[in-house]
Amino acid sequence: MILKKILHRLKENRVVVDSVVIFMVAVILIIPNFLQNTDIYFDDGCQHLLRGYGAYQAITNKENTRVISHFANGFGYSWDLFYGPLSEYCLIGLGIIFHSFNVGFKILLLLIMFLAGACLYKLVYCMTDNRNTALLAGIIYITTPYFFTDIYVRHALGECMAFVFVPMVFLGLYHLFNTEKNHYYLVLGVAGLLLSHNIATVLTAILALIYCIINAKNFSRSRVQKGLLLDILWIVLLTSFYWAPFLQTQFSAEYRVFEKDAMATQESLLESLLSAKDLFITPNDTPYVFEIGLPVILMLAFSLVTFRVLKENKKEYLFFLISGMLSIWMSTKYFPWKLLPSQCYIIQFPWRMLLFSSFFFAIVASMNMSTLIKKFRRRDVFVIGLICMMYVFSRYSCIPYAEEVPEVTEYELAAISGQENEWIPGMGRMEYLPSKAYDNLFYVATRQQGISVLEGECKLQKEHKNGSKMSVQIETSDEKAILELPYFYYPGYAVKLDGVPLSVFETENGFVGSMIDENEVGTLEVKYTGTRIMNGTQVISFVTLIVFLIYIYKKH
């Protein structure tokens, strides 16, 4: 009897029912990912899996995860100083819970798919006050072909998480300009994007700025001004533990990622542009699906009719439609990329814009259907949703498979061999190496694990290295000695001689260097501790998070 009452109440609670529907759609879509021979290491998958596992190893060795000491031949390699750590944290947590990073990775993709659909559901419901329209939007969103490519083929964990946070950004902006509450979603969206995917953050910021411009008249209202300033303050403080060390690292030395041709060149960018055919047909010789999707195209065909009869949200509807079309245009060879400055090449692959066309078109398509179909009901949602699912199912032949998919524990952790244009699981193209180290890869590949004396004379005894920690008995002669320690140079290494801090610098080979005065005898200790800025902003972000959660709780 009690169970019957609970089920009846759940049935009456439309939010719960719709959430279950979106979750079940995500579960059905993700099933192939749980097959044993689905190659989750394909493309970016191995980078994210090995990054998460490497950081986990650092944690178990009681080390700072900003530098993964086991990577790069044991010389240490940093992800967290350059790339948002949110996906890493999630993967580590799920990997621990399920006792397998492979399983944790798959569960994380499932959660991302569900949350993406749920967030778009929330946005469209706030705009239309129609749960059927919102439910259809959520289903269309997670069945778009490019989302399929990110989830199943590229395994681009950071960009997949952007599918969750982009709707949050626009939900927060919609509340900021149109309601008196809940614009804190803007904080969650921007912070989540920044901690997940740098490029998606920049692109979203541009689109969000355009949305703000078309709502410029609302800026005269004090509520909007105060709300926006408060949200910006929240974002700055919440994410300070990431962006402050990022800036400190950028100005402390030269790193490969900041070089002009490191991430992309005009040539590589132009090679990745799509043709009109790619938007409609997927060739048999490629696993990447860049289609808009036939169901979405058919639903978009009614946009003009919808715009004419639409009574509310016309401005938002037009913005979403134009932004979706612009996103498609920018992904193709018909957009004038050659005329843009080289700074725009940071996008790497123009087809990334399909993330945004998937988002915008899901909203427009759902609004078209709810406007076109008289007495738009849940059964209409299920029929259209089923068609969208069947279409994306037809693309499952593009999923990469392997004869054997090993556990992440069986992989060699990011070893540099010194080969030209080397691609390394866990380190990609070594974008986050110091530039001096990248220019001396043969030296890196052949270097021993001990301390090198670059200048002067120095006796070294009882060298002991354990991850990012090292100790050695040292004795210098009548002249100063310059040492090169077996760690790549990232800000945050502490070097002490008998407890007295020594200055550190970057050597010509991109390693940590330190100078020892003449006639010194003692124990040299090395440890990666992070800088004062890193440690201080961690405290600031943690305290801000607690206060922000209390703020949200009181808002509700």
Account of the protein in words:
The protein is an alpha+beta fold and 556 residues long. The protein has two domains: 2-220 and 259-398, no CATH class; 448-534, Immunoglobulin-like (Sandwich), CATH 2.60.40. It is 52% helix and 10% strand. The protein is built from 21 helices and nine strands. The protein has helices at 2-12, 14-30, 45-60, 86-97, 101-128, 131-142, 145-154, 157-178, 185-194, 198-214, 222-238, 240-252, 266-271, 294-300, 303-309, 314-330, 354-372, 378-393, 435-438, 441-446, 532-555, and strands at 452-455, 458-466, 469-476, 481-488, 493-497, 500-502, 504-506, 511-516, 521-528. Strand 2 (458-466) and strand 3 (469-476) form a beta hairpin. Helix 2 (14-30) runs parallel beside helix 6 (131-142) and helix 14 crosses helix 17 (354-372). The radius of gyration is 26 Å and the shape is elongated. The mean pLDDT is 92.
